[in-house]
Specification:
Chain lengths: ~120, ~450
Amino acid sequence: MKDLTVGTLIAVFEEIFGRGLFWAMVGLAAVVTLRYVYVLIRDRKISWHKFLLAQLSMPVGAVLAVWFVLVMTHSELANIGGPVDLIVLLGVAAGGAVGAAILVYTVQSLLWPPAAERR
Amino acid sequence: MTKSITNPTRRQLFGLAASAGVAAALGAQASARTPVPTKARIVIIGAGAGGTALANRLVRRLEGAEITLLDPRVEHLYQPGLTLVAAGLKPADYVLSQTGDWLPDGVTLIPEKAAAIDPVAKTVTTEGRQTLAYDFLVVAPGLVLDHDAIEGFSLDMVGQNGIGALYAGPDYAARTWQAASKFTEEGGVGLFTRPETEMKCAGAPLKHTFLIDDIAKRAGNGGKIDVQYAAPQSSLFGVPIVAEKVRMLFGDRGITSHMQHQLQGIDADRRRARFSTPDGSVELDYDYIHVIPPQRAPEVIRQSGLSWADKWTDQGWVECDMASLRHLRYPEIWALGDVAGVPKGKTAASVKWQVPVVEDGLVAAITGTEPSETYNGYTSCPMITQIGRAMLVEFDYNDNLVPSFPGIIAPLEELWISWLMKEVALKATYNAMLRGRA
């Protein structure tokens, strides 16, 4: 890879998904993350009740992410050929798990703020 | 409390942080140098991978230059995708786009072939008899597939009677898959060839062999196929360490090889192929044959006196410096891509490395400074060894492996991540390169 800069990476991702979809996804991820930070600051605490459901969603997110990548790339788990492949696979799964957890926690917090939860 | 936290100031802060991140990312990409003012007339023969990428970079580097591209082809081909089309993994239109879609504003595309180049008078004449004077010329017309050199073979045969030829274009690659898929179902002898000349992507003949073998075995027909690889060379790959690895993989897959076998002709009715070998003519039976014809520089290059006089005399590649790609006798001419007479580098990955070198050489010539970029022969081949796995082989002029991710992606290991690169990232990187952004 020659000149692997942030600009190159952005150009490559724009080509993979299309410019509109890529920036829409970046925007969506940013919105979810910002809302997550927002509810954390707003509530000034973690709701362990909501966190439990968020944790339960993690395996689902992990499996969905791995399935999505395998289907999109004509691959199967048997293609794992070395340590780096395992790391990539675990990275995809971890990304899916964390993403699902953040999404589920944030959605719950927005729908049922602490005041509503107490009621 | 909630109210104080959701006040506009805090929101603005978040918004600011997010946009700062995006701006920083874009800033890195927009750090282009100040354009050089010039009135130079630059002619680029060929609007393929090399010509297009160079044009996109030059319009950003130069201000006021008159850039003209010559290419009659309406369709742009993403050639690295042809092996995937010929294995039924992608449709034919996966490799197709429009030449005009990739070209920047401010350049002129003349949809004609170059008919003659006069390097002394510094003019290019098009097929429509238009004469273009140039200050600098970049020859990037690609190469010519010499199908007529294979006796008994013609392109209209592709797809029938067990004949494949994936190099010929997306339609032929798709027809190659028709013939190859029949072989993967019915079995028999699969004969995979490569030419004696320099060629585009020397890994592609191997990729096609590995993929068709894998597809047949996945379908449960491994017992019905006999896969054979026949090549004029003495080894399976130009880089010795890679050749050894391929030899081991062939052993593992049960693929036999016939070295020093040069395809001369085929008898399509009897399904026999004739090869010349050091021991004389040899005939081999096949049920499926993959034909890759000899490859040469286009006629216009060979007739204009730009070719090497003492090297590749039957092929006519442009005589240029290995490192700068500048013509050795005509300093205002550069060769780019397949047509360049250098020992390695007829791949899209090579083009990606060559384009900045030619750009740098051209700009340096315009400004009267010394060029700083050189080409080291870098070539990359994501060598697919089965569906879902590939080896990311990267090497230079000296047959050294030059891995992009040393210690992370092992070059001689069959890895899923290397397959992912070919399947997902390669076309995207290629497109970004065409736009002059990678």
